[in-house]
Structure formats: C-alpha cells, structure tokens
Write a structure and sequence with these properties.
CATH class: Mainly Alpha
Structural class: mainly alpha
Helix content: 55-70%
CATH topology: Arc Repressor Mutant, subunit A
Oligomer: single chain
CATH superfamily: Winged helix-like DNA-binding domain superfamily/Winged helix DNA-binding domain
Radius of gyration: 13 Å
Number of domains: 1
Strand content: under 5%
Distance between the termini: 38 Å
CATH architecture: Orthogonal Bundle
Shape: globular
Length: 91
Amino acid sequence: MDEHTQTRIHQAVLDRLTAKEWTVLRGLLRGYAPKAIAQQLGRSVRTIRMHRAQLFKKCGVVNEVQLLRRLDDDVLSELGILEAGLEGQPH
C-alpha cells in the first residue's frame, strides 16, 4: 500500500467521526485523560469514555497507542490535531 492510499484510509476513518468524537480525539492525542476532557467540556467521565469507545471502534483500535499508529503526522497536522491543547496544556 503506498503512502497516498494510507492517507486516504485514515481520512476516510476521520470523516466518519462525530463532532463529539473529534473533541475527544483531540483531547486524547494531546495527552488529556478522560477525566480532564470531561471537566473541560462539562460532561461526565462516563460520557467521554463512551465517545472514546466509539472512536476506537470506528478506527479499529483498542487504545491511544494504536490510534496514534494509525494516524500519520501529515493527517494530524493537516487537521490541526498537533496544535496546542483543547484550552492549553494537559493536566
């Protein structure tokens, strides 16, 4: 599989994410724990964990490490995920 095909696969996965899953994805990739994401968004930890579970299922992964391996830096950079944290640095 060439580099462009891999990017399209990653983009296709990302295109299926809901807005809430995107927010959780950004938080996780910036090092935030579900509890910190929940506090920042005014949601329960359980809700954030449910969004995380759906995100992992759509991406075909079981944890953040696998998620990072599936998303290459070019895609993350293009989508603004490698920029500053949700509201600042992780706690």
